[in-house]
Amino acid sequence: MRSTMLACVFLLVAFASGCTTVRTEYVPTPVVRPVVDARLLQPCADPVPARGDLTAAAIAPAWQRDRDALRVCKARHASLARVVQDGG
Fold first, then answer.
1. Whole-angstrom distance, CA of residue 51 vs CA of residue 26
2. Contact 88/34 with Cβ under 8 angstroms?
3. What is 7-73 written as a DSSP string?
4. Is residue 48 part of a domain?
5. Which of 40, 48, 44 is closest to 65 using CA atoms?
6. pTM, entire model
7. Average pLDDT for runs of 10 along the chain of length 88
8. Domain range for 49
């Protein structure tokens, strides 16, 4: 009889506590943006315009400058991606 009474009391308390509301406030987490070096945000250089009257020997230095600029831009892009993805 006593165990039945305890079981009833337990069930009554369980049901009563299920009806109460718990109030929690939503606190948004601020977005932390990484600090990016301004040099990393520079746009990539445009290719050197080629004139139609240039020989291969004359245009080779322009191609080399384009390749060098692309290499620098690729390194800058990789650094920017590293900062954004890994935080530095």
1. 63
2. yes
3. HHHHHHHHHHHHTS-------PPPPPPPP--GGGGPPPPPPPPPPTT--HHHHHHHHHHHHHHHHHH
4. yes
5. 48
6. 0.49
7. 74 65 81 79 78 82 88 88 75
8. 38-88
